[in-house]
Write a structure and sequence with these properties.
two-stranded parallel ribbon; Rossmann fold; 13 helices; alpha/beta; single chain; binds uridine-5'-diphosphate
Amino acid sequence: MALKIMILGANGFIGSALTDAILRNRPWEVYGIDLADNKLGDSPKNERFHFVEGDITINKEWVEYHVKKCDVVVPLVAIANPAQYVTHPLKVFELDFEANIDVVRHCVKYGKRLIFPSTSEIYGMSPDAVLDEETSPLVYGPINKQRWIYAASKQLLDRVIYAYGVRDNLDYTLFRPFNFIGPNLDNVEEPKEGSSRVFTQFLSNVLYKRPIKLVDGGSQKRSFTYIDDAIEALLTILENQDNRASRRIFNIGNPGNCISIRELAERTIRIAQEFPVLREAARATEIVDISAGEYYGKYYQDIQVRVPNIEAAKRDLGWKPTTDMDTAIRRTIDFYVKQEGFGTRAAAMAAGI
Ligand code: UDP
């Protein structure tokens, strides 16, 4: 019998890439739910994909019924954009924590395998230079820095899932994404600043001929991970040969792609010039400094360096990332510029229409 996988948030950045990879490369059935289907490409045409447009906070019976019916549950519905943590902290809690705890409990009740997205944000301002799943301390700022509500929500879920594993034998894997980038990350055509994570924000700034803003000088570093590499790890986790991923936590990241945000801006501008449709705008793009307070408001606090230890994933999943930084940037830009009508909104705005 083919494995039945339930993906909540199948139209999201990770969900749509995972759905596509499963349907292309594995014989499994996918049961998906999401608010929309715009990122799903050809997946809805595949007869092994059973998709419903819906809201997991409303269509609760559908969710419980499908947890019962499927073998593995991958709940990917969450707000994962720092600008939202500071503007809508309660929405983050309600969706990322409250909506997901129900799904976790269904998995416990029906004895289903759970593959849950923890986050690299969980390490917060950990003093460790390289972040380890088993040993690194998780360090957050004070309550008045509302940015941490996301990390705190995710941390509590990790702890609850872990505890269900110990007490009730819940079969889970927690994976921690380190700044995944790739096609469908965010909408680069959206002119509103802050609606997007850093790389797609920068690309959007180029497209709209706006200066790239470096928060507090852009010396903070992230390890960017190309989505195809990440999906390979998730497929191995889903396969779970010899239970190698059961009751484990894995950092999924690319330590080789640890660069500063300033460097990311410079590389984005340089690589965007390879694409005729962006060349002129990229050449003209300025890089400016902005304070965190001005950009995000008083509830923000930043993380200076975020490098994963990926020994566990290498050893136990036989996985390692292979996409270098420039290739990840190039492939992502290539995806966006090939989208139908790319840049028409920006062009219309520039023309004052
Ligand atoms: N950042 C920036 N300019 C922007 C957007 C983000 O300098 O226009 C910085 C942000 O302050 C953070 C880093 O880029 O240090 C990564 O931001 P992102 O939103 O991708 O999420 P994070 O990695 O912090 O979860």
